[in-house]
Amino acid sequence: MSDNKSVINLEIELDENKIPEKITWSAKDGGIVDASAKAMLLSVWDEKENETFRIDLWTKEMELDEMKKFFHQTLHSMADTLERATSEQKMADELRDFTKHFGEEIGLLKKEEKEEENENKD
Q1: Phi and psi at residue 44, in whole multiples of 5°?
Q2: Model pLDDT for residues 65-99, shown as the tens digit of each residue
Q3: How far apart are the C-alpha atoms of 35 and 25, rounded to whole Å?
Q4: Taking Cα atoms as reference points, which of 105, 83, 87 lies closest to residue 96?
Q5: How many Å apart are CA 11 and CA 90, to the nearest integer?
Q6: Nearest CA to 39 among 67, 11, 17?
Q7: DSSP string spanning 65-83?
Q8: Taking the model in full, what pTM does it have?
Q9: Cα-Cα-Cα-Cα dihedral of 65, 68, 73, 74, to 10°?
Q10: Domain spans of the chain?
Q11: H helix runs in the chain, sequence order
Q12: Which residues does residue 13 pair with via DSSP β-bridges, in sequence order?
């Protein structure tokens, strides 16, 4: 077994009701030390249980518009990851299409931006 390790640390400060007030993370290999965050979504595949375990946290300071943008960007990045991990380009493109629709429906993208994105994609 290799001695090479990479460590990612998460620190969550909670209020008296166990609601996150502050999220800090570090990934020294990536040059990140005690970076502040307002939200996080962590998914871990458990091979023994054959299912995904999740930790979804956001601070009291996370604004609604920030949360919408966070989800939009997360969905888009999931499409990219799906394509890289599985070579399922068709399904990744379907997820990207949904992400564009999602962005329009929650008011992040206007219809014109969607059409421009499609033109730039070609």
Answers
A1: -130, 125
A2: 999 999 999 999 999 999 999 999 999 999 999 99
A3: 5
A4: 83
A5: 38
A6: 67
A7: HHHHHHHHHHHHHHHHHHH
A8: 0.82
A9: 140
A10: 7-61, 63-122
A11: 64-86, 89-105, 111-121
A12: 22
